[in-house]
C-alpha cells in the first residue's frame, strides 16, 4: 500500500520587495543578496495575514468536499503561532469547515515542524487507509529592519493532503534523523523577531545534512546515483547550495550536473518568496515538480528537513503518475507575476505595523486584502477571522 502526498497547495500574500532595492537602501552591493544569499525577491506579509489565514488560503485551493469528509487529522507546523495555548489547527478547522470528528493540533520545532507533522500523518494514514490528513507548514520569517537576517525574511503557507494511493509522491523507506541541543536560532516568547547565529547555523545545517544523508543511504542501501534530485529546506537559496555541494563529490560528473540542474528548478519559488520556515522544504519540492521538465513517475527525490535548535531529517519519496498539476503551475505563476512591488519605505511601514505581542484592540484594513481568508480585528484578547 502506498502512502504519500496527494495534493499540495501554496499561498503567499500579494506584495513583495526586490532585493536590488533592499541592497541599495542598505548600502550593500546587490550581488551580496542576489548571488551571496541567492535571493531575488521577498514576500512581505500584511498584518491582515497570519499563519492561520495563510494556511486557510493555501488549503482552500486543494481541498474538495470528499477531502472534508475524509480528513480527520489536522497537523499545523509553525513557529509563528498565534496563541501559546490554543492551536492554529483549531482555527483552521473552523475556517475551512472541516470534520469536527478530527484530531487537530499544532507542532513546533523551528523549521522542522511540518516534517514532523508529515511523518505523523504517514503513520496515521498507514494505520487508517480510508482516512486522510491535512498537514500545514506556515510561518512569517522576521529578523528586523537593518539586521543581517533581513535579506532572509519572507512568509507563506504550504498545505499537504496525505492519503493512500497518492497522486504526487509516495514515501520511500524509513527516515534518518538527528537532534542536538544547539543555540543557532531561537525566538524568545517576548519577541516577534528571531535571534540567530548565522555562521554557526550554516555549519550545523550542513553537518546535520551529511549525518542524516549517510545514515539514510546506509539504512536503505542507496547511493547518490539512486536519486533524481535532492531538495532542501531553504531559509535562503545559498544554504541549499552548500548542502548539495557537501555530497556532489560522491557523484560522477554527469550525475553532478543532473543534481545541480534539478536543484535550479527547486529554488525558483524560494528565491522569489524568501524564507517559509516550516514550509520551506515543501515549497522547494513543489518548485521542483512544477518547473522541471525532466522528471518521470518513479523518480526518487531526496528531502532534507532542518529545524534549528536543532533537528534534522532526511527521507525520500518516489514520484507518482500525476505528480505534475498544470493548475498548480498556472496558479503559482500567476500569484508570483501579479504581486504588487513595494518601495522600501512602504515595506518598512508594513513591517512596523505587525501585530504587537500585547493586548490591543484593533480594526485592521482587511478591505485592501484580496485574499479569501483574512484577519479582521483583534478584540478582547481574541483574533477575529473572516472570509470573503
From TrEMBL:
GO molecular function terms noted in the UniProt entry: hydroxymethylglutaryl-CoA synthase activity
EC identifiers of the protein: 2.3.3.10
Domain Hydroxymethylglutaryl-coenzyme A synthase C-terminal: residue ranges: 256-351
Signal peptide annotation: none
Domain Hydroxymethylglutaryl-coenzyme A synthase N-terminal: 2-164
Record key words, sorted: Acyltransferase, Transferase
Keyword Acyltransferase: yes
Enzyme type, top EC level: transferase
InterPro entries: HMG_CoA_synt_C_dom (IPR013746), HMG_CoA_synth_N (IPR013528), HMG_CoA_synthase_prok (IPR011554), Thiolase-like (IPR016039)
Gene3D superfamilies in the record: 3.40.47.10
UniProt xrefs under Pfam families: HMG_CoA_synt_C, HMG_CoA_synt_N
Similarity field: Belongs to the thiolase-like superfamily. HMG-CoA synthase family.
Name used for this protein in its record: Hydroxymethylglutaryl-CoA synthase
Organism in which the protein naturally occurs: Apilactobacillus micheneri
